[in-house]
Specification:
Elements: E1 18-24, E2 29-34, E3 38-47, E4 50-60, E5 74-79, E6 85-90, E7 95-99, E8 104-105, H1 113-118, H2 122-125, E9 133-138, E10 145-150, E11 155-159, E12 164-169, E13 176-181, E14 187-192, E15 197-201, E16 213-215, E17 235-239, E18 248-252, E19 257-261, E20 302-309, E21 313-315, E22 318-323, E23 346-348, E24 351-361, E25 368-372, E26 377-381, E27 385-390, E28 395-401, H3 416-419, H4 421-442, H5 449-467, E29 489-497, E30 506-513, E31 517-524, E32 537-545, E33 552-558, E34 586-591, E35 594-599, E36 604-610, E37 619-628, E38 636-644, E39 648-653, E40 659-664, H6 671-676, E41 678-679, E42 684-690, E43 693-698
Parallel strand pairs: 22-24
Antiparallel strand pairs: 1-2, 2-3, 3-4, 5-6, 6-7, 7-8, 9-10, 10-11, 11-12, 13-14, 14-15, 15-16, 17-18, 18-19, 20-24, 21-23, 25-26, 26-27, 27-28, 29-30, 30-31, 31-32, 33-34, 34-35, 35-36, 37-38, 38-39, 39-40, 41-42, 42-43
Length: 712
């Protein structure tokens, strides 16, 4: 990482942890050490006008036959200023020398622990082993001398030309952690496990030194720095100015990178040029907004409707309740009670400020939301149903219960999935038995009681084997209406389209459920001059049941030009063309397993595209993306961008549903990355590569997001 936006990335073929990184001086090269004890040489080389980080060589240090692994386990790496060799300290106390860039071991230059102990006085080592090499540091003024620090405390200055050792600190004291030279080479600092550090002079005649200071930072002036998490192993670096006058200190903690200003009283932390520290807090939800109008500042367990205010405000948050069960008999909520609202005015800081609260009954998780800024309407869905709220009049328009008689699990609260494990297993057995029995009937086979009993036992065994398969290997079969959570509302969508007849279009609300049902409601939104006087009215116009009953994850209406309808207010702000209301409209319903196009207003099937059932491929995210030409601004096309549970992204044409291309994007094992993926309207996307870091990608040749940076 350099300045913001300047970055290079390299990926090891091995799936191992990177333990150390070291730059080769003045070479645009670096060496990485992995936890499998392998070394890798990387180079920054220019290609097509940009620098790329490429792996040049890899190497694993090997000892003599029969030697234990600790003999060559690398613990310290020193790239020499000659740029010709690496010094590698090991757990055995030996220091190996390898040539760059070939990684050839120079055996005649190995510095063994025995050779070091032979060259120091006996009172410095007491005939004990040095143990592992903890630190290697080159003398800043004399490249023929290196400082060697062993974990048991022994520190020696080794002369590379004459193979001589000057002992600087004996064995047996506090465990050594690290060594640092002063710039002029007149002294160095040793850091120890107990938190103490000592300054040591280095004389030109190689006399054995006495410590200048033995400092323990307890009891001195301490400046508390909030690092969020304790850092068990931290790397500290001083950003040096000329004449050894440091201006800042860089602290790499377990969860964040902190820069401390040493020039300002109180040593405050320097604000990084990013929204948050690298691992500040986990991202749990994200949504991308395109085409934000410039006038936006001056004008997505409950639902909060908020407006943007650039000043602090204090007001009462209005409250409304939506009973999704509508007092239906036979349903009883077993979960927690709804949250209590606060009475009286509440003070809010500048920014998004809530002005109305809608509480769903039962108080279950809100699973889908849709906002239409132009109509001043917000739709919300839970596992029990969905509703429509007029946030201008602050009035509930309607609610619709989507529960099936078998959906009792949806009424048991957040722990229902744990409680329903046995029921899910029973349902899995039933489905497999039904499918096998029906297939046997189609073949016209029949058998006696013993054969049936034997077959049932085989069904149970096969069922267990099938449930042990990974999700991507599971066969796709039609779901039953008896499956739990069929009323779970997965998606909501507003559209101005032809729903009743082909001559008049009207506002509409569409909802898709986990059981493959699509509901469509006609809406009557009063004109602007009577918007506060007349209520918004709704009436159910259509209900579609997909035959395979797969969850509906996306709904889209295409206009007369087969173009997706624009977002609210886009046309009013000249951000999109007006939709074609002359030709016939089409409805696209996307389930986890297929894409299906219907004609409107008759809702008759026109086209469909099935995903490959054998691969267990299922749709996880879908959006319409506009792909512009990289050569001319006069051409663009709208396609579907689809992310599957296998982590690949498929581009599908509209309205003919032809697969254009498939990209492998996210590893199929990365469940959180797939679940967090967000698409933009112009063929880009984001997904989490850690709980708090986004990876950005582009599917469009017009919008390249790869940082193309150059290092001279």
């Amino acid at each position: 990482y350099g300045a913001p936006g300047v970055e290079f990335m390299g990926l090891h073929e091995e799936n191992n942890t990177v333990m150390q990184i070291h730059f080769i001086p003045d070479q645009c090269q670096l060496v990485t050490l992995l936890d499998d004890n392998s070394l890798h040489l990387w180079s920054l080389k220019q290609h097509s006008g940009a620098s790329e980080l490429r792996e040049e060589h890899r190497f694993t240090l090997k000892g003599p036959p029969g030697s234990p692994p600790s003999a060559t386990q690398i613990t310290a790496v020193l790239p020499h200023s000659s740029r010709e060799v690496l010094y590698l300290g090991t757990e055995s106390g030996n220091i190996f020398v390898v040539e760059l860039p070939s990684f050839r071991v120079l055996e005649d230059r190995t510095i063994t622990s025995e050779a070091v102990l032979q060259r120091v006085p006996e009172d410095y080592c007491n005939r004990r082993s040095c143990e592992l090499v903890e630190a290697l540091r080159e003398h800043p003024k004399n490249p023929d001398q290196i400082l060697i620090g062993y974990s048991r405390g022994l520190i020696v200055l080794w002369d590379l030309q004459n193979n001589k050792a000057t002992p600087l600190r004996p064995l047996g004291r506090e465990q050594l952690e690290n060594l640092y030279w002063q710039r002029d080479g007149s002294k160095f600092i040793s850091c120890h496990y107990d938190g103490s550090y000592t300054q040591w002079p280095v004389s030109s005649d190689n006399r054995q030194p006495e410590p200048l200071e033995n400092l323990v930072p307890y009891g001195q002036k301490l400046v508390p720095v909030n690092l969020g998490w304790s850092f068990l192993s931290a790397s500290v670096n001083l950003v040096s100015a000329e004449f050894d006058d440091p201006s800042a200190m860089v602290v790499l903690a377990e969860e964040e990178l902190v820069v401390i200003d040493l020039k300002t009283a109180g040593w405050p932390a320097v604000h990084p040029p990013y929204l948050a520290s690298l691992h500040c807090s986990a991202i749990t939800c994200s949504h991308h907004v395109s085409n934000i109008p410039l006038k936006l500042l001056s004008s997505s367990f409950q639902v909060l409707v908020m407006e943007l205010n650039d000043e602090d405000a204090e007001h009462v948050v209005d409250h409304a309740e939506a009973d999704l069960l509508q007092d239906q008999e036979g349903y009883r909520w077993k979960g927690h009670e709804k949250l209590k609202t606060r009475d009286g005015p509440v003070r809010f800081e500048a920014g998004f400020q809530p002005f109305v609260l809608v509480q769903c009954q039962p108080p279950a998780v809100v699973t889908s939301l849709a906002l239409h800024s132009e109509w001043k309407l917000v739709a919300f869905g839970t596992s029990h149903g969905f509703g429509l709220f007029d946030h201008q009049q602050k009035r509930l328009v309607f609610v619709k219960c989507t529960l099936h008689p078998s959906d009792q699990l949806a009424l048991e609260g957040p722990l229902s999935r744990v409680k329903s494990l046995k029921k899910s297993l029973r349902q899995s057995f039933r489905r497999i038995r039904r499918s096998r029995v029906s297939s046997r009937k189609r073949r016209g086979g029949s058998g006696n009681a013993s054969e049936v009993q034997e077959a049932n036992a085989k069904f149970d065994q096969d069922a267990l084997q099938e449930m042990e398969l990974a999700p991507v290997q599971r066969k796709i079969e039609a779901r039953s209406a008896e499956d739990s959570f069929t009323g779970f509302v997965r998606t909501l969508y507003f559209a101005d389209t032809f729903l009743r007849d082909s001559s008049r279009h009207c506002p509409s609300l569409w909802a898709g459920t986990n059981g493959g049902t699509v509901y469509a409601f006609c809406l009557r939104v009063p004109p602007a001059e009577r918007r506060m006087d007349e209520p918004v009215r709704a009436e159910q116009a259509k209900e579609i049941q997909l035959m395979h009953r797969a969850p509906v994850v996306g709904i889209l209406v295409l206009d007369g030009r087969s173009t997706p309808l624009p977002e609210p207010l886009e046309v009013a702000h000249d951000l999109s063309k007006s939709p074609d209301m002359q030709g016939s409209h089409q409805l696209l319903v996307v389930s986890e397993e297929q894409f299906k196009v219907f004609t409107l207003p008759k809702v008759s099937s026109k086209l469909k595209l099935k995903l490959t059932a054998l691969e267990g491929c299922r749709v996880r995210k879908v959006t319409v993306a506009n792909f512009g030409s990289c050569k001319t601004d006069d051409y663009s096309e709208n396609d579907l961008a689809v992310l599957t549970n296998l982590g690949d992204i498929q581009i599908i044409s509209l309205p003919f549903l032809k697969l254009q291309i498939r990209y492998p994007c996210i590893r199929k094992e990365d469940v959180s990355g797939i679940a967090s993926c967000v698409f933009t309207k112009y063929g880009q996307g984001f997904y989490l590569i850690s709980p708090s870091e986004f990876e950005r990608f582009s599917l469009s040749t017009k919008w390249l997001v790869e940082p193309r940076c150059v290092v001279d």
